[in-house]
Amino acid sequence: MSEVKETKKIATSALMAALAALLNMLTVVPVIQLLGILLCPVPLTWVGYQYGIKYLLISTAVSTLLVFLFMGPVQAYIFFSLFGIVAIVTGYAVYKKYSPARTIMVGTLLLMFFNIFFYYGVEKTLGLEDTLADFSKSSDAFVQKFADYTMARTPPIQREAFIMWWKSCVRKLLLFPLTLFTFASFAGIYINYFASSLVFMKLGAPLPLIEPVFFWRAPWWLVIPFLLVLSAGSNRFFNHTEFSDAVYFNLNMIFLFTYFFLGFGVANFFFFRFNLPWYMRLFALPFLFRYAWITAFIGLTDCFLNYRDLPSAPAAQKKKLYRKKR
Fold it and tell me: What does the pLDDT read at residue 175?
């Protein structure tokens, strides 16, 4: 019986590896490119969810080998760095039965470190970092056109100051692209978990559902590294260089966007709690972005105050907020 189960695991893992390689081939087809990107890591995640890290690693290696044979070494590297690592991290987390929030948080951190390793350990060594250079050029062209159209009546000195400020921010983002890696890692883990949960549900093995955005809340200890980063910006702690300023800028961007996102969730929680009409919610959204610092401060203080613990909403409104636990 054990030999039969082992054979079944091997056969299923091989089938999922071939399916992942096939879905990766769809990513170069313009019409169904998005479908391939969304579903490519899902078969490998299924292997990890069902059989553990051993078969997950084997399936990922086989998939990478198949992509290498049929599409070449560059596509094999892209497949492994974009989809293989995402599947490994997500598959291991769901096999260990981590909660969705923990899976996304731990997966984002692990994937971020993998991305940094691939960028500095592989791409820079082999001279493959052209993507960020192209992004910088396209960003400069975009901001120039943006300034020409929207700031035509602005004095030239102010317009040039805005362009220089934008280019300085982009240069800091790309000199140490931690912000880009963090957002890409979060998006990769979140999308793969969401797509996997939908597919696994159809297969009769559902994953725990991700909570709505307005229930997300950061742990209180996340404030400590944020305060350390703020204090490190002082000249008393280090001598400012171009690289250190880029690191400081990226860390601040990550924390501020995180707290803005959490504050945005708190605002949406109260939009639903007080049952505001859709047009009033739509009218309020620009103010959340216009006063982003206040929104971020709400997300920061929510780590301690937990605004959702205020007196409970009526039962009719709770139905819109809470999902039934399976």
Answer: 79
